[in-house]
Amino acid sequence: MTDAAPPHASASGLRRVLGIVFGLAVVVGGIIGSGIMRAPGVVALGVHSVPLTLLLWAVGGGVAMLTAMPLVEAGASVPRAGGSYAIATRAFGPTVGFIAGWITWLQYTGSNAFIAVVFGEYVHRLGFLTGLSNAALAALLIGACSLLNLSATKVSGGSQSVASALKGAAFIAVAVILLASPRAPASFHPASVSAVGAAGGAAAVIMAVRVIYQTYAGWDGAIYFSEEVHDPGRNVARATFSGIALVTAVYLLVNVALFHVLSPAQVAGSQLAVGDALHVSLGAAGDVTVTAIGVLSLAAIVNLQVMASSRIMYRMGADHMLPRVFAAVSRGGSPFVAVLAVAVVSALLAGSGSYETIVRIYAPWSIGSILMICLSSIALRFTAPDLPRPYKAPLFPALSIFAALVQAGLIAVVVTDDPHSAIWSVLVLLAPAPVFLALRLLRRAH
Known about the structure:
With 446 residues, the chain is mainly α. The chain has 18 helices and no strands.
């Protein structure tokens, strides 16, 4: 596929109907979540200076921007649906591509189930639909997002754009409320303080830096829709970098507003620092506000992950890495069989509770997916030097190696923290090998 495809459709059947606004919505909506509400409490354990805290949040956005550069180069050079799967396949062949697609798809579906169950908990906190279980509410959310995705690409893309805009506006509104509020009395203490509140020293500072960087996770979302975005060579880069910049600005604003109400000592160890600050400002209404924002944020993320994970299955089906049926596309541009598969698996995981295991072991996969794209970007510079590169990461190979080392370092930290889960991560990573081999034999037989 090239950018010479007609403007209404890609060469493969997906419709090229999404623009830069959708790309921004994917990046902003994929990054901003509950992390910004929880992370300040962990950061304040190790960093007690407000100016230094703000500097670290700004540096976190800068590191995300630098790390994104080789990813954007790869995404713009291989403008195909499926993100890490398509890029790794182009750089390292079908075996590596299949593994990359498998772990990213499983990560998304497991995350979908987990987030949907938490969505049910938040709905109950608001006092709605208390007669339904969390699993039932999770299934309803997954079903609703899937219906949006089944309708048409324009509809699902438009819903994501609206949801991300509302989410960003909600956090800006929270910041404005906090900036207009008086400072909490010195006697105020958060309602709940994490058990790690006693941590300190270098370990707490390292944890703060790690948490800040992880709060920016999700900036790779635009590359999963490269076959549906107009002019992906330009718009993948524009959406990714502009989205990271917007999120960095929102994070800094929220932190400034938070410390306007609470001191670093009051923030330290808080499990929901922004919620505690809103409680000071609005009383009980602050708790309702935080919960309502959580409902909106979680629903938007599930909708985005249904979209992204279905594109992975679609592209693997189109490449005959999965049964061809997963490449079926409706008249509205929806890869409907893939969407249905994602919905069924996500709902089953939510109902069974199996998502808990996936969530516990998928950290190395999510980081590894970014690492694979960074390595693919480096490899393609040598193996495909003539590949069109609408965007080229500067300072090659130093910057690309830096990005890869950042991801490798994060994997090392995660594995060191929880080696037992890391072993399961490897086992699950290798689990589909028999399926892959069987499919390859079938293809050769035909």
